[in-house]
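INTERNAL AUDIT FORM
Audit reference: QA-55
Scope: verify that the stored structure record matches its stored sequence.
Auditor: D.O.
Record contents follow.
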Amino acid sequence: MLQRCFEALRPARPMVHCITNSVTINDCANVLLAAGARPIMADDPEESAEITAACRALVLNLGMLSPRKLEAMVKSGHQANRMGIPVVLDPVGAGASALRIRAAHTLLEEVRFAAVRGNGSEIRVLAAGGENHGGVDAAPGECAPEQERAMAVALARRIHAVVAVTGETDLVTDGTRAARCLGGCAEMGLVTGTGCMLSALTGALLAASPEQPFAAVCTAVCAMKTAGELAWAALAPDEGSGSYRVRLIDAVNRLDGPTLATRAQWEEL
């Protein structure tokens, strides 16, 4: 499943519109190029829907949020829904502020999503409401694995989308099927934006395999973890986190279907 989905991406060369944050916009663009997709970024509401109309997937990221950017997200989401192209939500820091809480719930009400990708604390806010003052990082120890799975399944069923809860162990569910992905490395946390890059990659894989959303999201999650492992293994002794960031994008670029199928540590539950 993983190999087939990953190998469909490069020939498809989908254009992916990302309304994302300025902290990670360059990395999101580069990881899409590395994977064989074509990125475009436009966050002004006067053009965002028009740009979306030329694309095959849309990724909405709540980082560096503003009311004007939210307006662009809603307009682009409506356009994507009219066209039937997949939309991914990355609820960065959901619950950290009143603006982000309102934005997350507005988007869930206004836009049909193919997938939602966030850490445990962000997904908890979407599933149950409430605040999360932990910023953009996952808050460990707040939810047992069985509770996290039940929460993700309930959210997936409510919004009719694939939900990916990412962290040390990643959980992917469409409300019926579920999979767990292990692997990766802790050093991925030394690089800002690996989650944003994963959400962008998720959009690309959904664009290439829109009829298989569960498989596409599982593939994106496993590909990012595998790339993280390969990048760390390739790092020279005198290289640090800045070099690791570059190695990570290199690893996505060099990753192929057979390597992913062999190295990915995942299982359906």
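Auditor finding: record pair retrieved intact. Confidence is low (pLDDT under 50) at residues 131-141.
Action required: none
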